[in-house]
Amino acid sequence: MSRKIKKLSKVHDKVIKQILEEKQELINLLRDFMGVKLKKKDIENFNIEYKEKITFKTKLLDVVYKIKTEESFIVIEHQSTVDYKMGERMTENETALIGSREQQMENNKNRKAPVIYPIVLSTAKRIWDAPLTIIQEENNKYRLPVLTYPKYNVIDINKYTIDFLLENRTGIALEMAFEKIRNKRDLYYIIKKLKGFKKVNYWERRAMGYIVRGIEGILPFIANKLTEEEIEELKREMINILRKEGDYMSNFEEAFKKIVDEEAKKRMKQGIEQGLKQGIVQVAKQMIKNNFTEEQIELTTNLSKKEIEELRLQVV
What we know:
Elements: H1 3-20, H2 23-34, E1 43-45, E2 49-51, E3 58-60, E4 63-67, E5 72-79, H3 86-104, E6 115-122, E7 153-156, H4 162-168, H5 171-179, H6 184-196, H7 202-213, H8 215-218, H9 228-243, H10 251-289, H11 294-301, H12 305-315
Parallel strand pairs: 5-6, 6-7
Antiparallel strand pairs: 1-4, 2-3, 4-5
Helix pairs in contact: 1-7, 4-5, 5-7, 6-10, 7-9, 10-11, 10-12
């Protein structure tokens, strides 16, 4: 992985973490994508430190919330690629959380083991197909029982369309819509839709602020296809949307129209070329039936000798 991509990846993760550290955004995510009925007043941000197994460095879990009235925790990991070791990682996170709580509450005789709800927010380009738990095979030799490991939940952006996410009208859903961008057309489409909103709500504003500051990281798949001028223009467009001022019939809208027109022309050209090819094939077949020589067919249709031979087999 190049230094540039690593840098973009860090920016990317930081933006998502900043959004998820907003309590209301966490509530929005759980409500709209998992059906969880929590309110902002029910939870609090919670820092959990742990030591890595290999380096023994002290680290913080990504995003952790505690339900105030219970010894219950929500642990969220963001993944931009499918991680087939996520079962092990989540189990390690849960163990770290349990160990941390034991230290914090060692003098509390009535302490209970924490209940943990692990969640992966996947913004990978493909469907999340990693195991949801550690896979343990049955030991037939010694008849040891198969262990049951805790499972984690997945919120996968591949299951949602850009339109669905934009209609959700929350900051985290808007950020997820940007995560689905795979080309310039997607980018311009989202900007056009945002301009159509009569009002940008508070949480969308917060998310857009984070996105503007880390736009290169949020668009890792097309960042190398955008010029510096285009990136700056994108930032200006989003700031204009936030302010709800300026000329909305801008360069972005014209660029979006241009992309659509170019794609239509390309498809039309492909259709014409395909039609011409089919016509030439029909002419060649007719010439074969009328016993024209290979040279005559080649000269008339501009087909190769190999193509003519294949057509001759079809006619026979």
